[in-house]
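re: ur question from the group chat, yeah i did fold both. here u go
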Amino acid sequence: MRLVHTLIAFALATGCAAAQADPYPARPITLVVPFAAGGSNDTIARVIGERLTKAWGRPVIVENQSGAGGSLAAARVAKAAPDGHTLLIGAFAHAVNPSLMAKMPFRTPDDFAPISLLVTVPELLVVTPTFPAKTVAELVAMAKAQPGKLSYASSGNGTAQHLAAELFKMRTGIDIQHVPYKGGAPAAADLMGGHVSMMFELMYAALPAIKGGKLRALAVTSSERLQVLPEVPTMAEAGVPGYESGVWFGLSVPAGTPKDVIQRLNAAATETTKAPEFIKRMTELGYNIIPGTPEDMAKMLKAEVARWAPIVKASGAKVD
């Protein structure tokens, strides 16, 4: 309740003077999620939506619009009225789609105005408990001794799991084969069944299998170790310097949205990430909370687009 009161006080303090001239929000807000309900994007969106609804007294409607790697939802938001009533919870795919798709229905990042980063999610390099290599160094040595023999699973071409493995190949100089699946669940199932050698899996998806003894983590892709798996080294500690990957989630609106609206949304998003309930839920999932300014997110998005472009090209991945 303290967060709700804080947000209400903030809204009143910042909006009172201009309320009659330019009331915001003037109607329900639509928060577009570029993937199906139940996923990580959806989880974050519903928490944010609930907070904004309570703070402003206007419904925040979460709408899931999957398809084309998230570009359908992004196109919808890019073409929406720039008045702050249509938001996108963008993610990793938002930065890599320009490199994956020959024809884009919008321009990234030009057609969007960032609001705030929310969280990042690291990945884990996982194998089965019986896999011969017990460390990343042993895995790399094993792969170099058997070029093209080892394989890795992913949830599809151009996904975070796929590109994390391609980055791993580039950094270590190994030759391992990509086996794409239609989703993370079947990929993980085949990994646990011994049909593929390894996988870069998102933290929240891998953690239950690791805790249950069905998978073993060799390294985490973040720059620091995880509180929930303190014994698992980072890639740098495991002998792959300069390696870091993972996914991120952030809020955006159409380009041209008034700056005062963006600032109100940024302030509300930042306050939401400070809520004890939000922190507890995100920590349980293994997310790192990283709120910031619109400028922080704009800088990050441009860097991500540039960073992954050569990796996508080297992988040969295409999504059309």
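okk and heres the other one u asked abt
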Amino acid sequence: MKFIPYSNKQGLLLPNYVEDWIPPGHLARIVDTVVEQLDISLLNNAYDEEGRPAYHPRMMLKVLFYAYATGLRSSRKIQKRLETDIAYIWLSGHQTPDFHTIADFRRNNLKVLQGLFIQIVLLCYKVGMVKLGYISLDSVRLKANASRKKTKELNELEEALKETKEKITQIFNQAEAIDQEEKKASEKEPKDLPKELRDKQKLLAKLEQAKATLQELGIDKVNLTDPEATFQKTEYGLKPGYNCQCAVDETHQVIIAQAVVTKPEDTDKLKPMVEQVKDNLKAKPKELSADGGFYSGENLKYLE
């Protein structure tokens, strides 16, 4: 046998626990254990019994701390990880709060979260962890000598606590700044698949339709949500769309001819547009202005 049999569609006779996929000693396990020891009554008291149930603050705290500890600040990217990253899926218990919920949880509970994050870091310090991802105790410079850990001077611990508070404040500020930047740029970000394409059978049907369109048009690119659209050169780069032609009169810019086509080139559009003007107005135009995209020797000959 040349290759090990492979299929990513193979089911399991008995489903695995997601926890089985998290290696022993993984940071996610440490975060989970530490957060379970925290008193989160201040967070719990911020919620009312009325209305729709909220995501559990302990789960949100685990996800946020794990994300920030591993250098991830963006609420949008945390949302993506909750759908694809096994550590996030396990910490969240398969729940997927969106980025608005994640950002609001941090923003609405900022003071409480800062205090809890400090507790988490100090708990990790007490159990002998030297480093916790991006949130770390590196500034303490802990050594391997156990007795040295137990005899830290009070001023060293106070300094460590001060630096930890500053680092946590910096991380929260970074997270807020990133969320604000992404909010402004959200329209320019690649979008997820439309809802109608998330179903596998519907997606396959769209792909078959797209392949048929490719063969029919003789082109090598087609848009799944709008098969007739082709790549057009715009000021933002190549984007799926249409080539819209328009002719207007000189005096009042009244539209006297128009066409919407899929081919991006303009050179072969000049003659049809002039002919449309003639048909619409029952007269020949005396002059015509067009940019270099319409230039060709054949067009000049036709105009003459």
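fwiw on the second one: The radius of gyration is 31 Å. Residues 130-154 have pLDDT under 50 and may be disordered. idk if thats what u expected
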